[in-house]
What we know:
The structure holds 2 protein chains of 2 kinds.
Chain A: H1 4-29, H2 36-42, H3 45-59, H4 70-86, H5 89-107
Helix pairs in contact in A: 4-5
Chain B: H1 3-17, H2 21-37, H3 42-52, H4 55-66, H5 71-81, H6 84-96, H7 101-109, H8 113-125, H9 131-160, H10 172-184, H11 188-203, H12 211-236
Helix pairs in contact in B: 1-9, 2-3, 2-4, 2-9, 3-9, 4-5, 5-12, 6-8, 8-9, 11-12
Keywords (chain A): Membrane, Transmembrane, Transmembrane helix
Transmembrane segments (chain A): 7-30, 42-63, 75-107
Protein name (chain A): AzlD domain-containing protein
Amino acid sequence: MIDRVELWIVIIGLGLGSFGLRFVFTGIIGDKNLPPWVLRHLRYTAVAVLPGLVAPLIVWPAATGGHMDPARTSAAIVTLVLGYFFKNVLLAIFGGAATLYLGLYLIG
Amino acid sequence: MAPSSTKSAYWKGVRDGTPFILVVSPFALLFGVVATEAGLNVFETMAFTIVVIAGAAQFTALQLMSENAPTIVVLASALAVNLRMAMYSASLTPYIGAAPMWQRAIAAYFTVDQAYALSIIEYENKPTLTVPERMAYFFGVITPVCPNWYFFTLVGAMVGQSIPPAFALDFAVPITFLAMIGPMLRTPAHMAAAAVSVTFAIGFAWVPYNLGLMIAGIGGMITGAQIELWTERRAQR
């Protein structure tokens, strides 16, 4: 169960932080430019954080008590492959979900 | 500035933004469902989605809170996912930096992926647009997108509790993230960043307080930046 105090700290903190990130240049800095090395690291933040977040959820799924499970693993692979080749997030989600349900139906 | 030209810029934005309802609504629905599964009530779910208005960061924060990660790690990880917003802000500034402060503040709140992507294409294609026309276009794009983000989160939160466990919703979050990661792997630098992130996240999973994810994120960023630098230098030779 998520702690209520923590939840509200996260909602407000994340709201203020996200607004800050969105406002930092248009609102405050104006048209001054960031050093190139900072921009170069910013470009990779999403692709550096999201895969690390998702990997343990696939290798150790909580729903199966932390054991890798063929239905979930194949759903993960299908989703990533579809997203990579078709650059279409929704297609990848639906393909992955279909694989998951098919896998759960066949394997149980 | 002629009012008719800002009006037509606004409506062009509305037309360009409308197809993205199809992209935003399922995500919003899913967030509503996953948030209620994690124990949030409808009010908390809506406050979350209205205050933060950033899907990937919301999913990240929710996942880490469900794993009982320390608050500071939850905030740091979710904000790291949102760092791209600072890049959007930086790249919009030359075009709308001269608009009144209150307009820039409202635009900042609504700077979501779709609003940024469409606006920057329009600004680059039509360099003669005036600043009021640019702002009108931006607000046109968010008109169909953002209200639907709120509305479908609400729908998801209302139906969420009635979905049985057989639907394996535990895997909705991994699938959503993987679907977003696929299109991000545009260059060898992006792929290397993702590979290092996965390796470090698994390898440092034993580190307490979910700090393994921080290590993975920093490692992935440095890797991506270094590979990009190396690729550029090699191309210049």
